[in-house]
Amino acid sequence: LPAFLYDESMFDPAKKSQGCLRGYYLKRVFRHIFTGPSSALDLNAHRGTKAPKGRIHGMTSPLPRSIAYAAVQAYFQLSSANLWRQEIEDLDLVELYDRVVDMFEGNSNKKWVEETLQHW
What we know:
Oligomer: single chain
Shape: globular
Largest sheet: 2 strands, antiparallel
Number of strands: 2
């Protein structure tokens, strides 16, 4: 998985799930999309005039698929691609999305899933 998905202060090469999906940039992209651009850096920032996407869609807490969507958007933003396409720099964005979703929905380590979602 791309490094930006990890909280660098928690990363341990021997425990690849530790710190995964807790990266600073990933969380900022998620907030930008789902709680509004002004909240990306400051949760207490002045809110914009339009309702954020999360509120429009009735989201009350981060969901695995919304985190996966943010991961794909973040990867695209960090890439050198200037047009949207499924594969960028040898990474298939559909596979990235599916992999992130599977880390939640197909994971037998329920403790990790719970702790990661609570972190969000």
